Protein 1
Amino acid sequence: MIVVVDERSLVTSGYSAWFAREGITTTGFAPDDFGDWVATVQENDIMAVEAFLLGECADRNKFPHKIRERCAAPVIAVNETQSLEHTLELFQAGVDDVVRKPMHVREILARINAIRRRYGNGDAGTQIGPIRVFSDGRDPQVNGIDFSLPRRERRILEYLIANRGRRLNKAQIFSAIYGIFDSDVEESVVESHISKLRKKLREQLGYDPIDSKRFLGYSINLD
């Protein structure tokens, strides 16, 4: 999930639609609401955020520090005008990258993945055991062969692999796949997606790589 902050609701809804076409969930905030949210949100929810996109808003330079106090997800600022001074101020404030509109969401995703690679938090092509997953909308591969999955199942597999070594509960997976504030979908749908994913992986690998423990959540073991 990507969090978008902008003072214009039209902009946040626009990003939501653009990212949705790439299979990525977003949650939009007005600046005042975001400041309160990032300071008080539960750890499970903020750990589900894959990146923050900061659009035009007052006090934008204060947000990177607030984000860093809670998580290490990439922070990208989006400028609508070209200004070297403004760009340097944003980098000094702690953003990981500054981009100028217009920009295709695939380039934003590529920049997010590049930042994660630099910090060792991910890769556009991450190979774990027989499975390679991508963060740019492509299907995963099993033993070098494309392994077609529905969008939600693909995103769950990517999220489990990105957080390998950690056990993720249903709420964390739901937030990552559907967004923190999606009240139209029940969390129980995660169990259905994971059940289907496990069956397909078992058929392809000959074993079930997803371990589940009641009350603790899910983890993936491919080593």
Protein 2
Amino acid sequence: MRVLVVEDERNLADAIARGLRKRGMAVDVAYDGDSGHEMAFVTRYDVVVLDRDLPGRHGDQICAELAASGELTRVLMLTASGTVADRVEGLQLGADDYLPKPFAFDELVARVQALGRRATPAAPPVLEVADLVVDPARRTATRGGVPVELTNKEFGVLCELLKARGAVVSSEELLERVWDANTDPFTTIVRVTVMTLRRKLGDPPLIETVVGAGYRTAEVVQ
């Protein structure tokens, strides 16, 4: 899942980003409304965690423009004011959810995860191919009933491939969906991650390379 945090309180923004990354999300951060607006419309994020009172472009304007754009990006609006009138106003602007400060971090994570599930075309809660079963919510993967231990990036790549349901997913798409903006676009990290993922999943292979195009889940004949 790709998340953008737009928050001018740097310590808070960095803390949110660190926490979400520990949960396996790819997170970018903007500290003002102008840079947040630019990033939100250059990269397709699943969720934007958006502070309402931002320097530069106001959070209300960013929210309204995202809602009007027709993108699948979901907006979780943060604000220090938590009155009913404020929540109603934020939702009317196009926010998908609203969380007043201060908040419990576990609640923030749960809300981001719920919005992320709505940001992409509907996928089953449990992803399967052959004897591989992946539960994104619980972050578990088993093959033939045996647990497979995966890193956050390996798990993210696997989920993206399974959600594609046999369609080819390019290295560029995987880099955009699983890694953040600080990743070198010319890196071989996707190829290396797929290689280690294949090894951990075992035989018969479940991921095949489509030369010049990317990767897809393989059809395994039992």
Protein 3
Amino acid sequence: MKDVRAPDAVPMLSRGKHRHPGKGACFMELASFLAGGRWSDHPVCTHPLLAGVARLVNDNTSDAGRQQLAGLVPSVIGLVSADLRVDARIALRLATAALPVVAAERQCAMAVSVLACDHMLAVLDGRSPDTLEKRSQEALAQAPRATRWAGKFTRGVPAASAAAFRRRVAPHAVRSAVEGVAATCTPHRDRLLRALLVDAIEECAAWVGREEGRRDARSSGAGRS
């Protein structure tokens, strides 16, 4: 995915929430500014979970690295969907990306997130809950101890409802992923955090694009009838 260059004379990205552009802007406040909407770090122009990822990455990136996020801001504008698959796909993408790189003490929680998100997608897609997507299999294989622990921990535990998954499970998964990567002892933290945000944008954009394609197909079919 190519970066979109933000226009000149816009607020500089900084950590936290800001009252107005003169005080600076977090990633999502800048998105609300560019979208022409009400100044907010929770703008309606972006899917709530994707916006949550953006706020977390913004706040956990260093001051120097944060400015490298600005080119991604236009990419989140207009990415909205009510489909729970978007929440599940974003959460699973981040959980699988983070699992192999976070510290050992965080891997068990990350593995649980992978299993929970994959299970929700299985339910939504009509897939057997006993199977795992390839991405999940590959991530779990890189943390075998955590995977065994997560399997025992989740065995017999009822799956979260759709409402609970959207409200609690998916946000917890993305927070654990971002904060886990931010806590890693590597000089490449900023690059890894930016990659998580790019992953989340790609997942959301891909699904929104499919929804738009289906709507266009239905409209074309109705026009021919």
Protein 4
Amino acid sequence: MRVALFITCVNDTLFPGTGKAVVSLLRRLGCDVDFPAAQTCCGQMHVNTGYREEGVRLARHFTEVFAGYDAVVTPSGSCAAMVREQYPKLAKPGSKGAKAIAELTPRVYELSEFLIDVLKVDDVGAYFPHRVTYHSTCHSLRGLRLADRPTRLLQNVRGLELVPLQGAEECCGFGGTFSVKNPSVSAAMGADKTRSILDTGAEVLCAADNSCLMHIGGTLSRQKTGVRTMHLAEILAATEEAQ
């Protein structure tokens, strides 16, 4: 299966290890993974702040770059939701661009969706002997409706103890530009999330979006809690040999 990795801006710039983990995991499961070097931002920030024309241009570029692949996989529920939910609204009905978007968007998957819905696996052979709790990011929960896909994968990781997070479905307060425009509210929401995480006694906080992990992780770090943040892909890529 010919798969393209859509890495996203945040991961490419700040969390390259997540992209490497996705490639390692998918290759372990028999996928032929490409990284189209011409990929750019999906346009989410532009559209969310009113720059529709820039979003249209970036959507057009995205469809050109990723056309021809069997699947496009991304370690971001947020960016996957942008492509699947917003791209069809950006294109002019009946246009060439609308047709290209309609053809591509059904093949764009968040990582856990691809593993469970396409590859039909919920045990990827991972080993991670730690106490972990999972935060459901807003776009993955309410946009993509990932439901229990990420936790099903975590439950099958050998050595991992998955503990429930109270209020896991509540926003962490990041919300992209929301955290910039409303810093006090964002910080308060992050503090609430941090308290819930500490109550679990977990060593590691896991999520499907590094943007949210960055926000929560900042609070965890400033409070010197000792709790690490890790993207779902990095845990799933871990093996006993690598420990």
